[in-house]
Design brief:
The protein is of the alpha+beta class. It has two helices and four strands. The structure holds the ligand O=C(O)C/C=C/C(=O)C(=O)O. The ligand O=C(O)C/C=C/C(=O)C(=O)O binds next to strand 1.
């Protein structure tokens, strides 16, 4: 059972996330030949206040216009 997990920061439109799921599913099906019903795609969204790069959260980066 192939399982692909994608971690994103919060803020994308639901339709964009749904499109991502579709594309990841299709890539796994095509590349591995896995049966469609066996494929799992999990998208996790992390609040931008809970994701830091270089000790600056993405929310802080947003605030300073970075
Ligand atoms: O685009 C996202 O969902 C996550 C972005 C992360 C960064 O920009 C970073 O880690 O620097």
């Amino acid at each position: 059972m192939p399982l692909v997990e994608v971690t994103l920061s919060e803020g994308r439109e639901p339709a964009a996330i749904r499109a991502l799921i579709h594309e990841v599913h299709a890539a796994v099906e095509r590349s591995l030949g896995a049966p469609a019903q066996s494929i799992r795609v999990i998208v996790r969204e992390v609040p931008r206040t809970h994701w830091a790069a270089g000790d600056e959260t993405l929310a802080e980066r947003d605030s300073r216009g970075g």
